[in-house]
Design a protein that fits this description.
- By secondary structure, the protein is mainly α.
- The chain has 2 helices and no strands.
- The protein is elongated, with a radius of gyration of 28 Å.
Amino acid sequence: MSNLMVGVELLISGLIIVFLVLLFLMCVMKLMSVLFGKQPSEVRISKQPLATISADPGEEELVAVMAVIASLLPKNKQAIVRLKAVE
Protein backbone atom coordinates (compact mmCIF):
# COMPACT_ATOMS: atom_id res chain seq x y z
CA MET A 1 0.00 0.00 0.00
CA SER A 2 2.95 2.29 0.63
CA ASN A 3 4.09 2.04 -3.00
CA LEU A 4 0.62 3.04 -4.17
CA MET A 5 0.60 6.17 -2.00
CA VAL A 6 4.05 7.16 -3.23
CA GLY A 7 2.85 6.76 -6.82
CA VAL A 8 -0.26 8.89 -6.24
CA GLU A 9 1.81 11.53 -4.44
CA LEU A 10 4.28 11.61 -7.33
CA LEU A 11 1.43 11.87 -9.83
CA ILE A 12 -0.22 14.78 -8.06
CA SER A 13 3.03 16.65 -7.47
CA GLY A 14 3.98 16.17 -11.15
CA LEU A 15 0.63 17.50 -12.33
CA ILE A 16 0.92 20.54 -10.08
CA ILE A 17 4.48 21.29 -11.22
CA VAL A 18 3.52 21.01 -14.91
CA PHE A 19 0.49 23.26 -14.35
CA LEU A 20 2.61 25.90 -12.59
CA VAL A 21 5.30 25.83 -15.29
CA LEU A 22 2.67 26.25 -18.02
CA LEU A 23 1.06 29.09 -16.08
CA PHE A 24 4.47 30.77 -15.75
CA LEU A 25 5.16 30.38 -19.48
CA MET A 26 1.76 31.85 -20.31
CA CYS A 27 2.53 34.92 -18.20
CA VAL A 28 5.96 35.28 -19.82
CA MET A 29 4.42 35.09 -23.30
CA LYS A 30 1.81 37.74 -22.45
CA LEU A 31 4.49 40.00 -21.02
CA MET A 32 6.64 39.58 -24.13
CA SER A 33 3.71 40.38 -26.41
CA VAL A 34 3.04 43.57 -24.45
CA LEU A 35 6.69 44.63 -24.48
CA PHE A 36 7.76 43.55 -27.97
CA GLY A 37 4.49 43.11 -29.85
CA LYS A 38 4.06 44.92 -33.13
CA GLN A 39 1.22 47.36 -33.53
CA PRO A 40 -1.13 46.51 -36.39
CA SER A 41 -0.59 48.68 -39.42
CA GLU A 42 -3.23 51.21 -40.28
CA VAL A 43 -5.65 50.41 -43.05
CA ARG A 44 -5.41 52.80 -45.98
CA ILE A 45 -8.75 53.73 -47.49
CA SER A 46 -8.65 55.35 -50.87
CA LYS A 47 -10.84 58.40 -51.48
CA GLN A 48 -10.80 57.84 -55.23
CA PRO A 49 -14.02 56.77 -56.94
CA LEU A 50 -14.33 53.18 -58.10
CA ALA A 51 -13.37 52.50 -61.69
CA THR A 52 -15.78 50.54 -63.83
CA ILE A 53 -15.23 48.71 -67.08
CA SER A 54 -18.26 48.53 -69.32
CA ALA A 55 -16.98 45.87 -71.70
CA ASP A 56 -15.77 42.36 -70.89
CA PRO A 57 -12.20 42.86 -69.64
CA GLY A 58 -9.55 41.12 -71.67
CA GLU A 59 -6.45 39.39 -70.43
CA GLU A 60 -4.32 42.55 -70.58
CA GLU A 61 -6.79 44.53 -68.48
CA LEU A 62 -6.93 41.78 -65.84
CA VAL A 63 -3.14 41.67 -65.67
CA ALA A 64 -3.06 45.46 -65.24
CA VAL A 65 -5.67 45.32 -62.45
CA MET A 66 -3.76 42.54 -60.68
CA ALA A 67 -0.52 44.54 -60.92
CA VAL A 68 -2.15 47.62 -59.38
CA ILE A 69 -3.68 45.56 -56.57
CA ALA A 70 -0.36 43.83 -55.90
CA SER A 71 1.39 47.20 -55.59
CA LEU A 72 -1.17 48.40 -53.01
CA LEU A 73 -1.12 45.31 -50.79
CA PRO A 74 1.54 44.78 -48.11
CA LYS A 75 4.52 42.75 -49.25
CA ASN A 76 4.71 39.07 -48.17
CA LYS A 77 1.26 39.19 -46.56
CA GLN A 78 -1.94 37.43 -47.44
CA ALA A 79 -4.99 39.46 -48.37
CA ILE A 80 -8.46 38.72 -49.61
CA VAL A 81 -9.38 40.66 -52.72
CA ARG A 82 -12.86 40.53 -54.16
CA LEU A 83 -13.57 41.89 -57.60
CA LYS A 84 -17.11 42.69 -58.62
CA ALA A 85 -18.08 42.53 -62.28
CA VAL A 86 -20.25 45.47 -63.32
CA GLU A 87 -22.55 44.79 -66.22
